[in-house]
């Protein structure tokens, strides 16, 4: 698989944060999910198969464009 995309860093701010990878193509579908507990960090990458990453729960996301925190 060719590597084509940006990396993002996701840090869980609570237990049970869900990270979901979504596919490219005509129909967007879930293709992978992970659960993180408080303090765990995941480094994810956009690829030829992954067009979006959904984060459910309190987390901090770092990209080359900046930092986003969901503290709700």
Brief summary of the model shown:
The protein has strands at residues 7-12, 17-23, 30-36, 41-45, 50-56, 59-63, 66-70. The chain is mainly beta.
Account of the 3D structure:
- With 72 residues, this protein is mostly beta strands.
- It has strands at residues 7-12, 17-23, 30-36, 41-45, 50-56, 59-63, 66-70.
- It has a single domain, classed as Immunoglobulin-like (Sandwich).
- The chain is built from no helices and seven strands.
- A four-stranded antiparallel β-sheet has the order 4-1-6-7, with no helix packed on it.
H/E element order: EEEEEEE
Query: Could you state the oligomeric state of the chains shown?
Result: single chain
Report, as a whole number of angstroms, the end-to-end distance: 36 Å
* CATH class membership: Mainly Beta
CATH architecture: Sandwich
Helix content: under 10%
Report the total helices.
0
Q: What is the domain total for the residues?
A: 1
Within CATH, the superfamily carries the name: TRAP-like
Question: Average pLDDT across residues?
Answer: 87
Low-pLDDT ranges: none
**Rg from alpha-carbon coordinates:** 12 Å
The amount of beta strand, in percent, is: over 45%
For the largest beta-sheet, the strand count, sense and barrel status come to:
4 strands, antiparallel
Number of strands: 7
Q: Which overall shape is indicated by the principal axes computed on the Cα atoms? A: globular
CATH topology: Immunoglobulin-like
Strand order of the largest sheet: 4-1-6-7
Look at the helices and sheets and give the structural class.
Answer: mainly beta
